[in-house]
Amino acid sequence: MTSATGPSGSGDESRLIHGANEKPAFDHDRAEAAIRELLCAAGEDPDREGLRETPSRVARAYQELFAGLYIDPDEVLDRTFDEAHEELVLVRDIPVYSQCEHHLLPFHGTAHVGYIPNEHGRVTGLSKLARLADLYAKRPQVQERLTSQIADALVRKLEPRGVIVVVEAEHLCMGMRGVRKAGSTTTTSAVRGIFRSSASSRSEALALIRDGR
Ligand SMILES: Nc1nc2c(ncn2[C@@H]2O[C@H](COP(=O)(O)OP(=O)(O)OP(=O)(O)O)[C@@H](O)[C@H]2O)c(=O)[nH]1
Ligand SMILES: [Zn+2]
Description:
Layout: E1 2-3, H1 28-41, H2 54-65, H3 73-76, E2 80-82, E3 89-100, E4 106-116, E5 122-124, H4 126-137, E6 140-141, H5 143-158, E7 162-171, H6 172-175, E8 186-193, H7 194-197, H8 199-211
Parallel strand pairs: 1-8, 3-6
Antiparallel strand pairs: 2-5, 3-4, 4-7, 7-8
Helix pairs in contact: 1-2, 4-5
The structure holds guanosine-5'-triphosphate (GTP) and zinc ion.
């Protein structure tokens, strides 16, 4: 298992998350022109009937696939509440669809996100863990950074005793091209706090992630 416990990588968000009056947006027209150009580069005729709408359609699709660039992760976790619970909270098998930033091809699989609340019992809604995974996935990504960004956002907002994130994914850039190892999967983990310092806490959480009991 690759352990992604380092800093959150090169995903500098300050470029994209501005103040409320200055919302950055996906440039649909520019993306559309780029896709048209790509089709031309491939020797296709972008004006033939089947392709006529394609540049605009692909631009809309990428707007959706990269939507996570324009959402502030801290806002997703803004609504926290106190609940007297100081044990593990774990959401398993969150489907993730992302794109590797090297080839802009999909990698997809599941994320498992767990944390132990701090002594005040600061927790967030379960759906927010899935929203967090989703928004970081909807960016040009590498799996290691996706994994640690989810963990670091939870550390920032919940100040929990520990966080564990495991992502298992198949990269189509390794399947449909290049080395052509379809079906191979990559597992990455990010552990923070008690899950980093205590091997037994980490093993317990990993067993729950693996078996669900
Ligand atoms: N660590 C990591 N590597 C990734 C991820 N997604 C894709 N890659 C790898 O990024 C690497 C890019 O390698 P390059 O040699 O620059 O590109 P390439 O010639 O297209 O490489 P091949 O895929 O081996 O054909 C490849 O080894 C991919 O498998 C990811 O999430 N994490
Ligand atoms: Zn790739």
